[in-house]
């Protein structure tokens, strides 16, 4: 049965939810209740409560996204999620379900984070470092430049329209890629979608990272750059983020973080481009608005003196 007031949204998925729960021991008595969790740019998420009061999150997979190159094969994020849960960085996994494809995770009670709060920013930096130094080896490598190329090619095949000045900006993106000189042997396990919606602060003050759809081994500064741009951190806050992460202020590492902020925005731009071209698959997001905002953010960032300085620092 459903406890969601938005009956129309739930009814579309109720059969799949019931079938999924029937395959999970302890949840298969037909008495669980659930409610749809709004958002979720790739999949559909449900907060589930068992007849005994146990809480969980059920994520039903949207396999169409991997066919477009947006997400890797489902086994990759599913297994990465299991690993992150085992290491206490993500939510522990209750079950992976094959039909309908999905994953069930322990519900983590917690509060949203304010990354601009100095104390919280330090905690986020230290948690990111613990992820990167965990010793995990995720099931794929993640190069944001290569990923964006694949996704944008798919978007163009779907008829997506890119901004008129995209070709010129692409030249700058290529310069950034060349300057950063990514080397897979130096990659560490990375979340690759670290912003406040995917972070929870628990009652003991610890931070957990959730949603490993884009996870993979990558350059450690990518997660930092993504946090910086997605959370709208100012230069002083980015200084604090990198100093807290590395234990010292290093101008070159700070510059790499700045360049990875542009790389993160460009990758996100590619995701919205393909999502807009196939918006009927998950149309509860304002893809047009997000794509426009991300593009404007890229244009603003690469026009600043700080960007040019960062590029020069990394190249030297």
Describe this structure in words.
The protein is an alpha+beta fold and 316 residues long. It has helices at residues 7-21, 64-67, 75-86, 118-132, 144-157, 166-180, 220-230, 235-246, 251-277, 287-302, 305-315, and strands at 33-37, 44-49, 55-60, 93-98, 101-106, 188-190, 199-201, 207-209, 216-218. It folds into two domains: 7-106, Phosphorylase Kinase, domain 1, CATH 3.30.200; 118-315, Aminoglycoside 3'-phosphotransferase, Chain: A, domain 2, CATH 3.90.1200. The strands form three sheets. The protein has a five-stranded antiparallel sheet with strand order 1-2-3-5-4, with helices on both faces. The protein has a two-stranded antiparallel sheet with strand order 6-9. Strands 7-8 form a two-stranded antiparallel ribbon. Strand 7 and strand 8 (207-209) form a beta hairpin. Helix 4 packs across helix 8 (235-246). The model is unreliable at 1-5 (pLDDT under 50).
Task: Give the SSE map.
Layout: H1 7-21, E1 33-37, E2 44-49, E3 55-60, H2 64-67, H3 75-86, E4 93-98, E5 101-106, H4 118-132, H5 144-157, H6 166-180, E6 188-190, E7 199-201, E8 207-209, E9 216-218, H7 220-230, H8 235-246, H9 251-277, H10 287-302, H11 305-315
Antiparallel strand pairs: 1-2, 2-3, 3-5, 4-5, 6-9, 7-8
Notable characteristics:
disordered N terminus, Phosphorylase Kinase, domain 1, 48% helix, 316 residues, 11 helices, two-stranded antiparallel ribbon
